[in-house]
Amino acid sequence: MTLAGTLRPQYDCVVVGAGVLGLFTAHHLAQRLDPRRILVLDRGYLSAGASGRNGGGVRQQWEATATIRLAREAVAVYRRFPREFGYNPWFRQGGYLFLAFSEEEAGRLRKVSGVVRSEGLPVRWLEPHAIQRRVPALSTEGLVGATYLSSDGVIFPFPVLWGLYQDLRRRGVEVRTRTEVLGLSREGPQWSVGTSRGTVRTARVLNAAGGWSRDLSALAGLAVPNTPTRHEILATEPVKPFLDPMVVTLRRGLYLSQSMRGEIIGGFSLEHPGEGTSTMPSSSLFLREMSAQMARLFPPLASLRVLRSWAGFYDETPDGFPILGEDPRAPGFFHGNGFGGHGFMLAPAAAPRLASLLLGERTDLDDRLFGPGRFLGTKAARPVEGLTLG
Ligand SMILES: Cc1cc2nc3c(=O)[nH]c(=O)nc-3n(C[C@H](O)[C@H](O)[C@H](O)COP(=O)(O)OP(=O)(O)OC[C@H]3O[C@@H](n4cnc5c(N)ncnc54)[C@H](O)[C@@H]3O)c2cc1C
Predict the structure, then answer these.
(1) Distance 217 CA to ligand 1 centre (A)
(2) Tens digit of pLDDT per residue, the chain (390 long)?
């Protein structure tokens, strides 16, 4: 990563944000454009955003077929990632267990599994005794059942970022960390991108700024519906392997899995209303509540010590779908954001489509679900992706 030196005056595409989405998209662009004319900028370090702060969950159980298809494709990309990029992100397909603690939750999950099955994925409904056979340490108190898809899994995020970064470097793409975008203005068909290392011009800008995408759009004079929300997560001391699947509860969106080193990694949705995006602290309230919920679900974990906790931003949209494509109000300004808590599992499939859109091509993405224009104009009822938890 180049830390010093001046930027060139002109690029074909400037990607703002070196998270998983920005890097994956640059990887696809580099196969179509002259790599030396692609610039990726990040004001932090390589894993400063949510891409270096997440739970690594990769699941294909979703309410909308469009999301299921993207996630299924992402699973295939992650399976071949070590061969293609030379870095092993330890993608472990131990399945995802979505737990239902009421008939209402069970009804919702059964509906989801109907859609997932119709997409050819063999999701199963498990009764409490079958859940306990699979995860003996899990308390079945109050449990009604669970959906289980064995090809869902957990990935270690950092090797993904490093594999992508090394690939870009090999191809000659310029990736500049510690370089902040401070201003954006359009002059005819060109964008002028003001950065902390000088100004560059380009025909295309990609907003891949994750939890800060709203701020970046504002620099271009664009109001967007994205809302950054802070989410906390923790890792415990390691214990002997006992947990293959990622376990998720619908209530409060609690999720936890066991890492290769034996640590339990997990979080849940704790609201932090009215916050800005300048800091991302973790709280003692989260630690207390998360520990209590983990101990209720897995009584043997009650005496486990927490090693560390941290936080990051979900970049949320009103309908639970990401925003992918050119902003109709600003030719040449593209969105690749709004992934909520699921960008790591959707980026591998969103990125090649985004690269095509940046090159002016059509894709199979349904504009009514993913297009930036869906939030402009009429407020007609639109489909939503409701399973945006865990
Ligand atoms: C606690 C937590 C748990 C999660 N768990 C999961 C999970 O299990 N599975 C999953 O799929 N997803 C999960 N996610 C969500 C996932 O991490 C994100 O959706 C994904 O990483 C977003 O990637 P990105 O590339 O869009 O953004 P980011 O990784 O956030 O990258 C954006 C980058 O933009 C840079 N930037 C911002 N503004 C500027 C500027 N003005 N100039 C230059 N650079 C700028 C930032 O420094 C940052 O590095 C989780 C997120 C959190 C916070």
Answers:
(1) 16
(2) 444 578 999 999 999 999 999 999 999 999 999 999 999 999 999 999 999 999 999 999 999 999 999 999 999 999 999 999 999 999 999 999 999 999 999 999 999 999 999 999 999 999 999 999 999 999 999 999 999 999 999 999 999 999 999 999 999 999 999 999 999 999 999 999 999 999 999 999 999 999 999 999 999 999 999 999 999 999 999 999 999 999 999 888 899 999 999 999 999 988 777 778 888 888 999 999 999 999 999 999 999 999 999 999 999 999 999 999 999 999 999 999 999 999 999 999 999 999 999 999 999 999 999 999 999 976 666 778 877 766
Distance in Å, CA 11 to ligand 1 centroid: 24
Picking from 314, 341, 375, the residue at the C-terminal end of a domain is: 314
Whole-number Å distance, alpha carbon 12 to ligand 1 midpoint, is 24
Same domain, 338 and 363: yes
C-beta 290 within 6 A of ligand 1: no
Q: Exposure of 19 by Cβ count < 10 A (0-12 exposed, 13-18 middle, 19+ buried)?
A: buried
Residue 219 and residue 159 share a domain: yes
Q: Are residues 253 and 145 in the same domain?
A: yes
Residue 129 per-residue DSSP state: H
Task: Check: pTM over 0.90? Answer yes or no.
Answer: yes
Q: Is 139 in the same domain as 239? A: yes
Residues 182 and 264 in one domain: no
Q: Is the CB of 43 under 6 A from ligand 1?
A: yes
Separation in Å, CA 136 to CA 106, 125, 204, 283, 304: 21, 17, 53, 31, 17
Q: Are residues 115 and 218 in the same domain?
A: no
Residue of 45, 212, 279, 290 to test ligand 1 pocket, by largest number of atoms within 8 Å of CB:
212
Of 284, 314, 344, which residue is a domain's last? 314
